[in-house]
Amino acid sequence: MRNNESSEDYLETILMLSEVKPVVRSVDIANELGYKKSSVSVAMKNLRERNMITVTDEGYIYLTKEGKKIADMIYERHRLISEWLIKLGVDKKVALDDACKVEHDLSEESFAAIKKFISKH
């Protein structure tokens, strides 16, 4: 997994968890992604250094404005692509897995065209 893709996955996961939990901690991210806590800690340090997240003294993780912007973009791509594939008859698990692969590499132009096409149908 490329570093940027990994960062985007972490940001997307923080966003998704923040929608269902009052606070997000590293352990929540580790549990959600099935990663070791040590790996998540390193990733959180990198995201913090890049000003994508803030971490409180209690260990609560929040997206910064820039982090949320990226997380929203990836999450929108994930939702739209997976829902589209499911409507096309792709098995839900396969659709979700494929959306994870595509969401990072798809150009803005291609995503906008897919989004426009889907909205008309």
Write up this protein.
By secondary structure, the protein is mainly alpha-helical. The chain folds into two domains: 3-64, Arc Repressor Mutant, subunit A (Orthogonal Bundle); 69-120, Diphtheria Toxin Repressor, domain 2 (Orthogonal Bundle), CATH 1.10.60. It is 72% helix and 5% strand. It contains six helices and two strands; from the N terminus they run H-H-H-E-E-H-H-H. The chain has helices at residues 3-18, 26-33, 37-49, 65-87, 92-105, 108-120, and strands at 53-55, 61-63. The longest helix has 23 residues, at 65-87. The chain is elongated. The termini are far apart.
Provide a compact summary of the structure.
The chain is mainly alpha-helical and 121 residues long. The protein is built from six helices and two strands, in the order H-H-H-E-E-H-H-H. The chain has a two-stranded antiparallel sheet.
Spatial arrangement of strands, main beta sheet: 1-2
Q: Superfamily at the CATH H level of the largest domain?
A: Winged helix-like DNA-binding domain superfamily/Winged helix DNA-binding domain
CATH class of the largest domain: Mainly Alpha
Sheet with the most strands, sense and barrel status: 2 strands, antiparallel
Number of helices: 6
Radius of gyration: 15 Å
What is the name of the CATH topology of the largest domain?
Arc Repressor Mutant, subunit A
Please give the CATH architecture of the largest domain: Orthogonal Bundle
Tell me, rounded to a whole number, the average pLDDT: 93
Q: Tally the structural domains.
A: 2
Unreliably modeled segments: none
Give the strand content: under 5%
Instruction: Give a count of the beta strands, DSSP E runs of length 2 or more.
Output: 2
Q: What is the percent of helical residues?
A: over 70%
Secondary-structure content class = mainly alpha
Morphology call: elongated
